[in-house]
Amino acid sequence: MNLLSIGGSDPSSGAGIQSDIKSFSKFNVYGLTVITGITAQNTKNFGMVEPVSEEILKDQLQSVFSDFKIDGIKIGMVYNSKIIKVIHNQLKKLKIPIIVDPVIKSTTGGTLLEKSSIKDFQKFIIPIATVITPNEYEAKILSNTKTKISNKKMAKKIQEMGSKNVVITGVKSKNNEIIDLVLEKNQSYYISDKKISKINHGSGDIYSASLLFSLVKNRNLKQSLKFAKQSTFDSIKNAKKRGKGNTITNIQKQDSINIELTNAINKFTEIKNIYKTIPECQTNFVYSKEKSKTTKDILGISGRIIKAGKQVLVAGKLEYGGSKHVATALLIMNKKSPHIRSAINLKYQTKIISKITKSKLILSEYDRTKEPENIKLKDSTVAWGIKTAIKNSKKIPDIIFHKGDFGKEPMIIVFGNNPENVLSKISKII
Asked: Could you tell me if 285 and 271 are in contact, meaning their C-beta atoms sit under 8 angstroms apart?
């Protein structure tokens, strides 16, 4: 995957193209850059801005596009009308995701978009955006808002200028949460996450870079926004004090296992009527490293996927060792068949069992009422059950279930090579 950042250079590497390159690297993708301007800034102060010429900007863009297949683009600082028009002319016919992060001022106070260029930004940059991600201050300027109106109306005004989707970040802050407003073509909604009261440098760049990466990975917008919000939260949480001023956000090296499982969990929670499959003990979704030896080698939710009415929510963060029972079941299965590295538990329902038997999936079961007493005393029920179900099956099962015991809830566990494979099997049985 090749991702292009078009924006300004920040010598402190806290924001701008330097931040994007760091983010792309952490996502294990190749990052390219086109510089629109040079800034002099650090974690305390903002100095000068010097935009590049139209000629060198155009030559940079043509050099990149003539040699690389670009999968997605992020546009940050554009500074003036000349730069805006060159970018528009070079990008207007592209059919790839373009994220516009409309930086107007830096954290340290510098002006990154000339006031006289705002109309051209509205006319030439907003229409090429797949998603534009202003904060409230930027949204007010871009929507020409003079009086107090709702954030949704501001987002609608920006969308009418041509952006397919508008995300106004930080529209609400309550109960220690930070909330973003999302306006798609036919719907609007909010996405929230925990708030960290910490002044930092670079969180907006990490948000937009993460969003671009996720969209190019073929996730839908809502899934991508959740991924971006989580990445940003983690980067602020892990921010480091590198200079004498604001801390610099620090995005951690992205674990491919974590990325795949996060994507799958987001997709799972959005399956229609999936709340009906959540058992009383709730659900966990796990994914193991290759050659896992213990449950600490298996990524799971340190909490659960829970049912709240007809809504399904993720309560907890992904951690290695975050699951006990589902991870134990996967560990036993993985030792028998190393290519099986993911699993999820679902509520036992006879109609699901009926669909499984009619499908080409291999089903096996074990009887908890026949569990030896010494196994119960050792609290090794899950391991014993999975081993028994494997032994009772002629082939490695895709799905294992039991009908429960006194005080024990019946359960279904779906196994797969990876989280996407697990989701594929779920789609066949619910």
From this structure: no
